[in-house]
Design goal:
The chain has about 1450 residues and is an all-alpha fold. It contains 82 helices and no strands. Helix 16 runs parallel beside helix 18.
Length: about 1450
């Protein structure tokens, strides 16, 4: 026929090429036992267990793929309309080019699954399929998808696999994929693996209709298809065609024929295939014997199988576990389960056996052969627990999970669970099966399993039902929820408070409907559990009136306030109902029901007030300032009071949120009994914030009035006392009395008195009085000038009352008085602008901004630019906002709150405005900036699909500053999901520092104390083969240790402990021995020469490794050279390394020169060159050290972190700024490999400037790092500048210290950036400057609130010898950092390191006095000190090891807290 005629012509060339190679085409293609460590595509396409066949040819995958920003925007605009698999959007040539990389991405995604598990899940395959279908699928992608529909889908049944292959085939064909022979061959392979019945004739006809010519692989697989059904006649037709056309008959064809004869019932002909093969010149291999074994297995002929096994052994053919598993599969599929043990006992259990056997088990379970699968599972090696710290066994999880997915009868599942537990393979199989049933929402199965658990005495907890309730609650399926509640009640489990409040009540439209429905199913609603949940629900919704009704009801039993405090705070923030806020607070304070139920009740309400302020954002506090003021005033009326310690915390929070006016409203709430009433001199100028340090205000005012009258009666000057009196009256907000005093003594008034009166009038919104006072002051003496802050109070009051033009005039007057805005005044101006912005008056904000900028009162900055955007965002005018922001950029070169504006545009799906914004940024700042702006907006708003398309844009590179900005934003806001998504999607981003990205995740884990996320990040790093820097390992180790977890790696030591233990193997391999230059030695001298060399060599190497043996090693080497001995390169390297480690530079150079003369291509390796740099630095040869470093990098060697650190520090000591920057540029590409922190260069550049006397530049550089900027500015706060403070203190540079200290305090006071000042404080303590630390703490009280940093300092100091003084100093200054139960073990650890028995004894006695039980680890340490001192241990020493008790403590810390 015509089709076959065409095939004959095209196959001739293929056959000729095969004959030239003298190899069977099948042998070229066949992969017998493909390793999972091979090429990715090979792993995906190699023959699977149970279905042996030829592998596919390799396919080259293009490497580039992306989406442009415009296509991402278009996709975003259509995302809401897109459903299912769609390809209606045509991106043109760019979109088609972008598909090239998608194949590589999809391949990598599937490959990772195969590499990890040896299989692919249906969900993963469909995910890749859907994603590929959204674009323009390529032939390679189609091939990849088709090949994944066979045996790799071990958890999917055979018909479903084939249906999935057909779905993919049809859809991709519809999308325009052109299929060639490889695609048809892939489909054939899937048919074979899935035992799919089809007509080979129809298949050929389909190929002919598509004008695709079958090739050799096609015919081989068609033969296999005929033989799979036992159709020898059909197979013979194709075999005859192959013979006619001289297509080689390969081993694979013979194997197929063998299987075909066997399935046709002609077992004799099947066995006759072996002599036929030998007659054809083909030696039967393992595949043939496996086919023959499978043929007999299908018949259940064990005797024949045993005979074949003996033949295989005599023929010296090795069958692998994979082969045995295929035979086992044949037995199981044929129903001969009784013979399975014959195969199981022959398993070798080679490397990789478990993973392959797992996939066979899953496939068998899928086909309903779960008993055979369980028999195979029972052959897995049982892991023996070596210690109590190891996790309990959980072998068989995969099997049980798949059994649940296949909805196996519960009775059979229980039998498997029983067997697994009895064989010590699984510690809790029943609980795991229940977990799987709950996760897959199999309510009926879960109910039966929990019933069995109940019967067996196992606990059934409330949270077991949460996975069943979550989807129902999301769907508001109240009937489904009630059904689950019935099951709970039938099992004797009543819903607890979290179950009610989180999963049941939110699904109902109202609490009344929930009550009635739950009552009908039998829930007891008169319980504390339901009452608490009801209170939480009402509080969280902000229904304060209803909540008060519940709480004040006489039938209400009372609650521990802690159980609903968080929800109550949430409700207070949402509500504007001040009256009920006060009523509820009063009730909680005075009602006996809450006093009785709440431990330490006296502090409960004060702490609630503190947590309320702490839980509000700056914008919320400013927006509710009036409401909070009224709330505080009414609390005073009902006699609510707070201790002074709580007041300090609230004051700090309000000041941090730039609402200091509210502090005055909190002051009256302070309980005077808790205040230090020690008197102070009357002349002291005391501000409101220092209220806690002064005597009774009324007494002070009376004393000042008396003093004033006394001075006046004696005709003495009263100006100073008058000012103090006015200040005291204003601090108590007695405005009328202050104005009366001013009127009586007007002639004695000074500018300071007017200033406090003006400020108080502005605070009380008495604008006219404030202006009158200002005019009066101007009339008295025009030379008297108010401070900028007082002017800003006037501006604030005027803008608050809409008197914009007068506010502008006031600003102009400031310019006329030569006042400028600096430091706190700039922050105050920002809050004025921001307050106007929150009113939505964009025009007023613009007028004020233009005024201050044009007058030169202050320079434009990111901080002062933001209110214009805030105004438009607050009013919801996104169009006006975008126009204003773009106009602001044209005028002042800032894009205020651009990220927030983009997020709003994305959320509102304003695609036109978004496109306009992106076009502008692309034109003004470049396309790269535009892409990052868009990426971060999509991430922030949860549009991860669109973000993926941005990240795949061709040519997009990693911008570390931009990535760091967003990561720091996520860390600051504790947003783990967008940060994790960013880290995941940047995996293939060009030049992306993967260690840095994961370090951000670990920092957030550290902030949130989430060790599980940290552990997951570590797992992902290993999957990505990320090489972590030392700082990353230390941070991860810290997180794990803090939470009592075992650290799964060796924590890096500091340089001086590991520099001598560096692996020298790499060095020895670096220099290969070669012939010496000159004549070869004669054969006669070889033996004696070799003996001499070996004698010298062993002695030299031994001396080189000893600490003080470098001199003797060098002398011995010189002696050997004089004797004519020549050594291998490793000997010279060892001596050079020993000399450099001892600082002997000249001798090291001499040895190097000798080695270069004796050995061809001799050179120093990484470690030796690193030591050379360090030695040159020690000798002051900085220029030579830089040259050595440059030569290393040019030779593609990686320098050590220590060598670069020493060089940079020495350059800083020399004041060579340019050289430091040169080294930074040189090491840019290698810094990520060796974990080089960017702070090394920043700190030392600062120190170099200080060394040169340019302190101002140094301060400005550090200040720029810690000053918050616009979103796009990139760099954010660095890690630490403690090194700078330490060096300045050690050098006793008072001038630099003063300016750096001022900078640190400025960062804390103006920007709430406490890292610099806390670092300075701790550096003072560590170096023993206690008085300076005290003074620092008094000036910046917020240091005391940096508890994480301070606690970490204590833990760090406890590990260093000689640092007890620093720990004790910190604890004396701030005793409340940690509880004593945590402090004492740290001190005991430190005393143990210092071997200080006397102090350890005293500490133990103190612990006993305080009633604190010493943990076993502390007792073990104390006992060690007693033994070292030769004294008897006066208590019973804990018998176990240090490690045992350390792990015990970790386990205790890990236990979940039972309290809410």
């Amino acid at each position: 026929m015509p089709f076959l005629a065409r095939c004959r012509l095209n196959m001739a060339a293929l056959l000729r090429s095969a004959r030239v190679l003298k190899l069977s085409p099948a042998s070229l293609l066949h992969v017998g036992r493909a390793s999972l460590s091979g090429a990715p595509l090979g792993r995906l396409c190699g023959g699977a267990v149970g279905r042996r066949g030829a592998a596919f040819r390799p396919v080259e995958t293009p490497l580039l793929h992306s989406f442009t920003a415009r296509s991402a925007l278009r996709h975003f605009a259509l995302a809401a309309k897109e459903q299912g698999v769609s390809s209606s959007d045509d991106g043109g040539p760019v979109a088609r080019i972008s598909q090239a990389h998608r194949a590589d991405w999809a391949l990598d995604l599937l490959d990772r699954s195969v590499r990890r598990t040896g299989r692919i899940t249906k969900q993963l395959l469909l995910r890749v399929f859907r994603d590929i279908c959204r674009g323009h699928p390529s032939g390679n992608q189609a091939l990849l998808l088709l090949r994944s529909c066979g045996s790799l889908l071990s958890e999917v049944n055979l018909p479903e696999r084939s249906a999935l292959a057909h779905q993919i085939w049809d859809k991709l064909q519809e999308l325009g994929v052109t299929y060639d022979a490889s695609h048809y061959n892939a489909l054939l392979k899937v048919y074979l693996q899935n035992s799919f019945k089809f007509s080979p004739t129809d298949f050929l006809a389909k190929m002919e209709a598509a004008n695709v010519q079958p090739n050799r692989v096609t015919y081989q697989r068609l033969i296999a298809a005929y033989c799979q059904e036992g159709d020898i006649e059909g197979a013979s037709k194709i075999l005859g065609f192959m013979k006619d056309k001289e297509i080689p008959i390969t081993e694979a064809v013979f194997n197929s024929l063998l299987t075909g004869h066997a399935r046709a019932g002609d077992i004799a002909s099947a066995e006759n295939m072996l002599p036929l093969m030998k007659g054809s010149g083909i030696e039967p291999g393992p595949d043939t014997y496996v086919a023959l074994l499978s043929a007999h297995a299908e018949k259940g002929d064990v005797e024949k199988m045993t005979q074949i096994f003996e033949e295989v052994a005599s023929a010296d053919i090795q069958l692998m576990d994979r082969d045995f598993l295929q035979v086992l599969t044949s037995l199981a599929e044929a129903g001969h389960h009784q013979h399975v043990p014959v195969i199981l006992e022959r398993m070798r259990q080679e490397h990789g056996f478990v993973q392959e056997a797992m996939n066979v088990c899953l496939s068998l379970v899928t086909q309903g052969k779960e008993d055979v699968a369980f028999s195979l599972l029972n052959t897995f090696p049982v892991r023996q627990l070596d210690s109590q710290s190891e996790t309990a066994p959980n072998q068989g999880n995969f099997f049980l999970r798949h059994c649940v997915a296949m909805e196996m009868p519960v009775e059979k599942l229980l039998r498997y669970c029983k067997d697994l537990k009895e064989s010590n393979r699984h510690a809790a199989p029943l609980q795991f099966v229940l977990q799987c049933a709950l996760a897959s929402a199999k309510t009926g199965m879960a109910a039966q399993l929990m019933k069995v658990m109940k019967e067996e005495g196992l606990p059934v907890r409330e949270h077991f039902f949460w996975p069943l309730l979550i989807p129902l609650q999301q769907e508001k399926n109240t009937q489904g929820i009630l059904d689950v509640v019935k099951i709970m009640l039938d099992l004797g489990v009543s819903p607890d408070t979290p179950t009610y409040s989180s999963y049941i009540l939110p699904a109902f439209p109202s609490l009344d409907s929930a009550r009635s429905a739950l009552k009908e199913v039998g829930c007891d609603l008169n319980t504390l559990r339901f009452t608490t949940a009801e209170v939480r629900a009402e509080a969280g919704l902000g229904n304060l009136a209803s909540l008060y009704s519940v709480l004040s009801s006489p039938s209400f039993l009372g609650l521990n306030m802690k159980t609903f405090r968080a929800k109550l705070i949430q409700g207070f923030i949402r509500s504007d109902d001040v009256e009920n806020m006060v009523k509820i607070t009063e009730l909680l304070q005075y009602d006996e029901r809450f006093i009785k139920e709440t431990p330490r009740h006296t502090d409960a309400v004060p702490y609630f007030l503190y947590n309320l302020i702490e839980g509000m954002s700056t914008e919320e506090i400013q927006a509710k300032e009036k409401l909070l003021r009224e709330y505080f005033h009414q609390l005073r009326n009902v006699k609510i009071s707070i201790p002074v310690t709580i007041f300090r915390g609230i004051r700090n929070l309000l000041q941090m949120h730039n609402t200091p006016e509210l502090v005055k409203d909190v002051i009256p709430l302070v309980d005077r009994k808790t205040v230090d009433l020690s008197s102070i001199p009357l002349s002291a100028n005391v501000g409101m914030g220092d209220f806690v340090c002064i005597q009774d205000p009324e007494q002070k005012i009376e004393a000042l009035e008396s003093k004033l009258e006394d001075l006046k009666s004696r005709d003495q000057p009263i100006a100073a006392v008058l000012k103090q009196l006015l200040v005291a009256l204003c601090s108590e907000e007695k405005l009328d009395q202050a104005l009366d005093v001013k009127a009586r003594h007007e002639s004695e008034m000074v500018v300071g008195g007017y200033a406090v009166l003006i400020q108080l009038c502005c605070t009380h919104d008495k604008v006219e009085e404030a202006l009158n006072l200002k005019r009066e002051l101007d009339r008295r003496d025009s030379s008297d000038v108010l401070t900028a802050s007082k002017y800003l109070h006037l501006v604030k009051a005027l803008t608050k009352h809409g008197r914009l033009e007068e506010a502008v005039d006031m600003l102009k007057e400031m310019k006329g008085k030569n006042l400028t805005l600096e430091d706190t005044a700039v922050t105050a101006l920002f809050h004025i602008l921001n307050r106007v912005a929150l009113q939505g008056d964009a025009a007023a904000v613009k007028r004020l901004q233009d005024t201050v900028f044009s007058l030169g009162l202050v320079k434009p900055s990111a901080l002062l630019a933001s209110p214009i955007a805030t105004a438009y965002l607050h009013s919801g005018d996104l169009t006006g906002g975008l126009d204003a922001v773009l106009s602001f950029y044209k005028q002042y070169k800032f894009l205020p709150r651009f990220h927030d504006l983009l997020c709003h545009l994305v959320e509102k799906e304003e695609t036109d405005l978004l496109q306009k914004a992106m076009d502008f940024v692309s034109q003004e700042r470049g396309e790269m900036t535009m892409l990052y702006d868009l990426l971060f907006a999509f991430l922030q708003t949860g549009r991860y699909k669109e973000a993926h398309k941005i990240i795949e844009t061709p040519g997009l590179r990693a911008k570390s500053g931009r990535l760091q900005w967003f990561a720091e934003k996520c860390i600051a806001n504790e947003q783990m999901e967008p940060l994790e998504t960013l880290v995941e999607m940047t995996q293939k981003l060009f030049e992306c520092d993967r260690d840095e990205m994961y370090h951000y995740v670990l920092r957030l884990c550290d902030e949130t104390n989430d060790w599980r996320k940290a552990e997951a990040a570590w797992t992902k790093m290993q999957e990505e083969n990320v090489i972590p820097r030392e700082r990353t390992l230390r941070l991860l180790a810290k997180i794990l240790k803090t939470n009592g977890q075992k650290v799964p790696f060796e924590v890096p030591e500091t340089w001086y402990t590991n520099v001598n233990s560096t692996n020298r193997q790499g060095e020895e391999q670096r220099v290969q021995p070669s012939e010496t230059k000159g004549q070869r030695s004669s054969p006669q001298s070889t033996t004696s020469s070799k003996a001499g060399v070996n004698s010298y060599q062993s002695r030299i190497l031994s001396l080189s490794k000893s600490r003080d043996g470098s001199t003797e090693a060098y002398t011995l080497l010189k002696e050997a050279e004089q004797s004519g001995e020549v050594f291998k390169g490793n000997v010279y390297l060892a001596v050079i390394r020993a000399l450099l480690a001892n600082g002997r530079l000249e001798e090291a150079f001499e040895v190097r020169d000798t080695a270069e003369k004796s050995i061809k291509d001799f050179g120093l390796c990484n470690v030796s060159n690193g030591l050379l740099v360090i030695t040159q630095v020690k000798h002051g040869k900085l220029k030579d050290a830089r040259a050595t470093l440059a030569a290393m990098l040019q030779a593609q060697q990686v320098p050590s972190q220590l060598s670069i650190t020493r060089l940079v520090q020495s350059l800083a000591a020399a004041g060579d700024v340019e050289a430091i920057r040169e080294v930074e540029d040189l090491t840019k590409e290698t810094s990520s490999l060796i974990g080089l922190s960017r702070m090394l260069f920043i700190n030392n550049v600062v120190l170099a400037h200080i060394k040169n006397g340019d302190i101002q530049t140094a301060v400005e550089k550090l200040e720029s790092l810690y000053t918050p900027g616009l979103e796009g500015q990139g760099d954010s706060q660095p890690t630490s500048i403690s090194y700078v403070f330490r060096k300045v203190l050690e050098d006793k540079n008072d001038e630099a210290l003063d300016k750096l200290s001022a900078m640190a305090e400025r960062m804390a006071n103006h920007f709430a950036s406490y890292r610099p000042v806390t670092s300075l404080f701790l550096t003072y303590l560590e170096l023993g400057h206690i008085e300076e630390a005290k003074s620092q703490l008094q000036r910046v009280a917020a240091i005391a609130e940096q508890k994480k940093t301070l606690s970490a300092f204590l833990a760090r100091m406890s590990q260093k010898p000689g640092q007890v003084h620093a720990m004790k100093s910190l604890l004396e200054l701030l005793p409340d950092i940690l509880q004593k139960e945590h402090v004492y073990p740290l001190l005991m650890k430190s005393y143990t390191i210092d071997k200080d028995l006397d102090r350890a004894k005293a500490l133990h006695a103190q612990m006993q006095t305080d009633g604190i039980r010493a943990d076993e680890l502390s007792l073990k340490r104390l006992a060690l000190l007693y033994k070292q001192a030769g004294e008897p241990v006066p208590f019973e020493e804990p018998p176990e090891s240090f490690r045992f008790y350390a792990e015990k403590l970790r386990a205790e810390k890990q236990k979940p807290d039972e309290e809410e």
